[in-house]
Amino acid sequence: MNILKNNWYTESCDMWPGGTFSFEVKEILHQEKSPYQDIIVCDTTSFGRVLILDGIIQCTEKDEFSYQEMLSFLALCSHKNPEKVLIVGGGDGGVAREVAKHPKVKEIVQVEIDARVVEVSKKYLPYMSVGFNSEKLTLHIGDGFEFMKNHSNEFDVILTDSSDPVGPAVSLFQENYFALMKSALKPNGIVCSQAGTFWNDLDLVTNTLKYCRNQFPVGAYAYTSVPTYPSGLIGFVLGSLDPDVKFDSPQITFTKEEERAMKLKYYNSDIHKAAFTLPTFLRNQLN
Q1: Which residues are tagged catalytic?
Q2: Which tens digits make up the pLDDT trace of 202-222?
Q3: Rounded mean pLDDT of the chain?
Q4: What angle do the packed helices 175-184 and 202-215 form, to 10 degrees?
């Protein structure tokens, strides 16, 4: 059970049994139950503002940029010309903020099922929801599955910024979802999805990558450091319709001046390459 007691919020979940994560809360800024989930935004003593959905931390002001940048740029910089991008989920606006920075991206379409997450983020998380202000972006409130069924062969890159695979998000970790994304891609298209942490759920990582590789000629797993996520790491599964893609060798690289101009805090070409270098036990498991 996730509880607030004596100004401390404690997160626990069946996905990581036997452990919890706690942080000190200065103020609950917002709390409601939307048609889809419980939404909490609080201000904390150590992590800034925190968005919590159904009792699980989605992002904190202190470290959100690592997740947003890596989910976005690992895929965008693996594609030679990522002009049109679809974001599924990402109601806080963080991924849209990063995708809009990429110089080759001309059009962003985002589909988020919960309008209340968008509105709450606009009010309380402006440093993330600034992504919704991009002229490149068109936002649709609705179901990502249904949207892709009606948009075939349309996108260069599809990014799935989902919550953990409990409740409604379970479907985003199944093989039929990767098949649906495949149908919505243009030739040589690339997908990138949140795929959990290998420390807490190796079976989830293994199965998600398997589903991806069943649909795409090239599939890979990468990870990044996010201290406020379970185990301090979060992973991504990437798939490409281009059989010649090597995910650990970015097609697009940025100079340090370009990184500064885009206000990148975590991503760079060296981090891109390193993200696909796996511990021995994980490499053996996945390959």
Answers
A1: 161
A2: 999 999 999 999 999 999 999
A3: 93
A4: 40
